[in-house]
Design brief:
Elements lengths: L18 H52 L6 H6 L19 E3 L11 E3 L16
Antiparallel strand pairs: 1-2
Length: 134
Amino acid sequence: MRIESSRHGAPHRWRGFTLIEMIVAMAILALLLTIALPRYFDGLERSKEAVLAENLKITRDVIDKFYGDNGRYPESLGELVEKRYLRSLPHDPITQSNRTWRLIPPEPPHRGQIFDIRSGARGRAKDGRAYASF
């Protein structure tokens, strides 16, 4: 077995990190995570809210086009898919489902079942509005 020596003739030892160096590195990492993680989760929530607003906007536009073409409102969201107004049922990113929508019927003189659509999610968005009022 061969041991390398330094310039002064003493054997050269390979050193690892000391406990203090590891603690300092972990403290720096923890500090960075404390700053970054809340911003990440806040951005994630805001993106879900933006997707919800866009899905509602598109679906409401499709309901209006359906009414313009047929003279009545759709009986179900499935009818919008069947008649190819939508490729698939819209997804509510807050509830992570396409079955939690609140369907608002039209006023009595109009025919059909869906005049408007709202999110079935409970709680409030970052701007203070209830998800159900989007």
